[in-house]
Amino acid sequence: MARIRLDNLAHTYMTYPRDDRDFALKPMNVEWEDGGAYALLGASGCGKTTLLNIISGLRAPSQGRVIFGDTDVTECPTAERNIAQVFQFPVVYDTMTVRQNLAFPLRNRGMDPTRIRNRVQQIAKVIGMEAELDRKARGLTADAKQKISLGRGMVREDVNAILFDEPLTVIDPQMKWELRTQLRRLHQEFGHTMIYVTHDQTEALTFADKVAVMFEGRIAQLGTPEELFRKPQHTFVGYFIGSPGMNLFEAEVDGRQARIGPHVIPLAADYGRPEGRVQIGIRPEFTRIAASGGIPVDILRIEDVGRHVVLRARHGGVAVNAILSEEDTLAEGATHAVFDPAEIGVFVDGWRRDPVEGASA
Predict the structure, then answer these.
(1) For the ABC transporter domain, which residue ranges apply (predicted)?
(2) Exposed, middle or buried, 199 (CB in 10 Å: 0-12/13-18/19+)?
(3) Among the three residues 207, 235, 263, which one is the final residue of a domain in this structure?
């Protein structure tokens, strides 16, 4: 296991990049602690797979260093980094049995046959393939092959890190939940450093201790699921995390109040008078619908999603969402969205602005 540090790391696919826009990965400094469970979360094209491939040694960065523990491995090939990697699509040996596939990495390292047998049995239980251990991989379904691939990635106990690149894409939804749960248990039992790439926030937030949210080649925020939800550091994080995501409004901020057009919104702290593109953000969970206050909205529809109700509305051309409990009733004449001041974030040019020094939040 190893602490993984990225030191001023960046990457471009262009020979002569002119500025940051030509970089698939913008310069970043990141540290993943030894034994942590992390996720890289973002939409397609944000750079998360490129970053994972640089960590694994499949791609060399254009600048910066990759450090495992105290060792600079930037120039080291994948084999010397002592990592396991599980890819989006299954990679298995069709002519081997499931047992032989799982045992392959251990046999290559000359492990004692009894230990191999015990470890393979343990991993087969984790991935739910004990009954298929003596079946040839050829002819198995795509999700069964991906489970073998996952198992082979997890079978070694001596790796510095296990890297997962969208490994559950071909797995059916129920099995996804079961495998995520098993991966968490395996992490808790053996303490491998794990980095899990996905575009699915549910996968990221249920698997990882900390999630790195990426967009446009940057890590916008590295934090716990609670931190990403309660204090997103960028509007993209606010919008991307949550279902629905954060409500965002162009605003003018002056001290302890914001203005959305003519409507005054109280804030819980003094934010001064920020310049640039100023927005305020509020989660639908902290938005209620009342007869007055806040901002007027046109209610479009109400969606019952089981555990709660999502109210969809608009203020002018801007979407406004509110999450209500199933017991909440919409009072007649309730046409205003009202926000909890303590949960409002202020953002300038996309990034979260802290209150002025000495002001209460």
Answers:
(1) 4-241
(2) middle
(3) 235
